[in-house]
Write a structure and sequence with these properties.
The complex is a heterodimer. Chain A is α+β, with helices and mostly antiparallel strands. Chain A contains six helices and five strands; from the N terminus they run H-E-E-H-E-E-E-H-H-H-H. In chain A, strands 2-1-5-3-4 form a five-stranded mixed beta sheet, with helices on one face. The radius of gyration of chain A is 18 Å and the shape is globular. Helix content of chain B is 28%, strand content 23%. A seven-stranded mixed beta sheet of chain B has the order 3-5-1-12-9-10-11, sandwiched between helices. Chain B has a five-stranded mixed beta sheet with strand order 7-15-14-13-8. Chain B starts with 11 loop residues before the first helix and ends with a helix. The chains are: A alpha+beta, B alpha+beta. At the A-B interface, helix 1, strand 4, helix 3, helix 4 and helix 5 of A face helix 1, strand 10, helix 16, strand 29 and helix 21 of B.
Chain lengths: 182, 1122
Amino acid sequence: MRETPDTPHPSASVTQKTAAAPPSDRPRASRPGRVRQVNGVTTRTDAEPGERLLDVLRERLATTGPKRGCGRGECGACTVLLAGEPVLSCLVPWSRATEVETIEGLVEESGKLRAAFADAGAFQCGFCTPGQLVRAVALLRRSDQLTDDEIRQAMGGNICRCTGYAGIVRAIRRVLDERAAR
Amino acid sequence: MNVGARVRNIDWESTTTGRARFVDDRTLPGTLQAGVLRSPHAHARIVSVDLTAARAVAGVAVCLTADDLPDTRYPHMGPRFADRSVLARDVVRFAGEPVVLVAAETGEQVHEALRRIEIRYKILRSATTMAEALAPRAPRIHHRELGRNIAARFRRTFGAMDTAGAEDLIRVAGRYRFGRQTHACMEPSATLARWHDRERRLELWTTTQSPYFVRDEVAHVLGLDLDQVVIRESAVGGGFGARSKVCEHEALAGALSMAAGRPVRLVLGRDEEFATTKCRHDFEIDLATTATPEGDLINHEAVMRVDNGAYNHSGPSVVDAAIADIASLYPSRGVTADAILVDTNKHPGGQFRGYGGLQATFALESQIDELATELAIDPLDLRLRNCHRSGDTTLAGWRLTTAQLAECLDAVRTRWGWDDKRRKGGTGRGVGLAVAVHQTGIRSYPDANRAEADVIVGADGGVTVRFGSADPGTGQRTVIAQFAADELGVPLDRVAVEMMDSERTPFDLGSWSSRGTFMAGHAVTEAAREAAARLRAAAAEKFGVAPEEIDLADGEAAHGADRVGIGELAALSGEIAARSNFVVGTDMVNRETGIANLSPSYSFAAQAVEVEVDRATGQVTVLDVFSAHDSGRVINPVNAESQVTGGVVMGLGAALGEELIYEHGRLVNASYLNYGLPRSPDAPEVEVVFVGEGDAMGPAGAKSLGEIPMMGIPAAVANAVEHAVGVRITELPVTPDKVLAALRARQGAAPRRHHVWRRPERWWVALVRTAYPLGLHWLLHRVGTRFSRRNPGAIRPPAMIEPATVEEAAGELARDPDAAVLGGGTDLLPARDQGVAGTSAFIDIRSLTGLGRVARSSDGGVSIGACATLSGLASAPAARAFPVLRQTIETIATAPIREMATVAGNLAQEKRCWFYRSGFDCYKRGGASCPCYAVEGDSRFYHAVVDAHRCQAVTPSDLATTLAALDSTIEIAGASGARRKVSIAGLYSGPGELALAPGELITGVEVPGASARRVSRFDKVQLWHGDFAVAAVCASLLFENGEPGGRVLNARVVLGSLAPVPWRAYGVEKALVGEVLTAERIERAAEAWTAEAHPLRRNAWKVDAGVGVVIRCLTSLAARNS
């Protein structure tokens, strides 16, 4: 009874699925040769092409940084980068997955941002935080100059129920300001 | 020192790297997935349950009904109020009540099994509102001693109600209503349960604020001893009170694991989270306040009706707390209260930040402003005159060791500039304030005034603190480390905090009633102090000096130059460990009189908001918030400020948008999309000020902070709206419909008449609508829906098809009528789950050549591919000739959706009617025998006011509104390779329904260059940033000389979300052509479409909103160059 479930066991929760394959004369998804990488690691699973990226990440690949907050693209907790662009992974079929980056793969790049989150009180419960950070990383890759209003708009799809958002905006602001000062 | 310093959360690295493990992130070998079959009916008798087919589904391990479980009730407030069993027995009392549990190998098998359970219900008459439950012939929901559907009644008198000797008293009275708000924690409720058959023990990892409460209640309902249930530590994603007592899923998962003999994971879906977890109680308060002409408060009389929902849970205690709040906020002479707790067939209320006090404060603080108006006294001065001071005892017996409310008010005046801002009122801008009081932990349960803590100094010099509470985002874990670090003289990062483990972490009742910092601070300090004493003793012995000469700092014990690491001392002593047992001498809650000093200290706050109210549409925008707090000494300013800002924004949600909406007792808006909680662009700046000095009750002078930041906000907003535009809204939330209706009533505007009798084409619709409340709705709902073609949504993932050409895509579409074209997926994927897009296969067209284009066309227009994303179109240089496209897109949904969603997908998205989307067997889902639920239900925001027939839904695409105004054409490809073009008017056959033949798909949009000569603008009314339009308009005008100063030569005015399809307002256009846009002309033209309106009973205000948004749009269009 001392065994604690701190490490997910992907094999245990793998959904046993038999693919409802389209008729063989139809153009299929996941043509052979498509490379899928998650955080830089080439990935093989027997996931069906119509499964959702979020489910594949969490249940088959034990990548639990992206969270399932709603499963309908309404909360932003499952945000990941797909080919460098932020997406809601609960709305992406696995067939579209190419290069995927989750918070686990962005730890280094987000170092200053993460520290700024901690200093600004940008999280409390922490459940939305991986999604907020991934979204913010994408924003910081795209832009050097943003007003607070633009930050709020860009982060408008990532719900936080704890902080009232002020800390999140301040943290992103701080990273931008530090960058500008250099 | 760490206490009082700006320190980071000690778990910040695991939180920000994704390493923190929440319940759904954990898996044990052999874990089964679980699901719950819930009652679809608000009130019904369970006639029979047949599990044969469900059990036959491959992979199903167990199915359980109430008969498989002990016949027990959740204890909650004690046996007198215990009325709920784990699964419904014989009778279901709310829609969503658990009836059958299933565990299977995979989630798909669980869903399959749930669908195969056969249950026969006998539907009973239901009472889904307080009015229905209190009606003379209301159905009896429980057998209650106090009267039909009266779960509890409190009649209280505090102080003296006698007003003899007082002259010329002023009395104000009103009714205030606070609707149902839900916590909407970001982490869905979840339990991972593991039954150990040999040891007969149940381990639970669960989303809770109170492990010991969960342990006790789960043990009771499952017939186990306390030591047979063990709660384990997990990250917890939010609480706000929702998880401060048992939450049902723990026992559900536990029962399944016991039956299956394997670990079981139960995670609620977001819709279950909204529709079945215990929400804030709906209060209707009749309140009267009497005062002297000088402004001294004399007394308050309150009559309260509180919607309990179907079971008691904490209802009685919430009512009690509300009464105590009215008897404690001000030093009045007397208070009477008569409150009833009313059973209804809705999911039950529970604990929620503010806990009755929030609802009471809304009523009382709204009324204090009304009194201020009556007395012609500044609202801040009136409150200042009636402030409790340190040393006071309130009518409810609260002894205020410190009360610095006057200082809070002074901060609002001097630091925020109240007087200046107040002078500007009545111009559409206004300011309002409200004050609040809250306890620091309530002794409402045995041992709620007691906490234990363990402090262990390890041989490595590290300190471990064990505390039995949970930190769902309160910052308690960090507070614990701060206190321990300071007592033991170790750096913060040498302190590890273990929590939540009912076997290893000692007793504490959890993080609720704003008790966390107080209880943990004291208990941990005591234990750490004892551990420090032992370290000093050991060091003193080593150095041969007296213990009091030893300093503990930097992880060492020192006497002058003699130093020894505390780890070494711990190793020398074998182990240094101390346990505290902190008890605070407060009174137990007195359920008879309501008078008790139930908390060690009390916090105060004064909160002020500045709003802007748009008179045209009734929209309220919060510009600025100032929140001044007396919470004693602040232990961690980083977390304290975050806590206040978060509480304020949650209060703004309650004030302006959050409301659970029901139809036949079923929740209609069980999604973030339809629940107006603030998103980042909705949240204003919040200035947080702490004025309090230390309170002697401690620890370190701290008082409570968790709940009070939201308590004044709803009344402050209502007061500010009144100040801005002179209308008082007494029913939350303050949505545009209420504001606009009140503004029109104040102006003495007559209700609009739509003269349907003159319009034969509307007679049939009018007749049917008239028949709905007379029995037609009942007939269609009860009988017609039996013939519904139900589609509960897909379980299996769709097949994915990737055609190489548009023709191939069209061919696939023609071959399989159940396939759907996949663009961005932002609507199709959820719609498939909701059963409104029954798709076997997705035809992924996104990578087809040319479909992503945004290109200038030869006539100066723009050619847009079907798969261009909304944000791509908004930023495309080729679309610069049409700035209105960008302007429209910026109001659509949220940034991530705009980046993923495609132009064609936006046009093709399904209607968003919340009855249709949330599974009601409506006309469009179920077929002709089914009713349209919007006719009698809540149609205030998202249903048509023009042209609707059997279905009242609207086309949700704002882009369609704008594209129609730009005379755009839609390119359509067919299976045979044929291409055709249609206008927007030709694209739609109904609300969100496309007039496409089988095998046809949208391939692009052409906006003609001629439209670029017109000046265009889009505007919409929405409830939150990113919401679908409540009313929208795109106006596109050609001016003489090309600029808005000249006469209008040509006009397109298209209304969105007001009719089933984008609706050309020819009347408005006609009224504009040949005219110069003056304010008067605009106002007259904006009315020109309303003769054709035919609103529903509850959405008539949308006609006004539609007029308002047209005025606003045309006005800013006219102002562009004048």
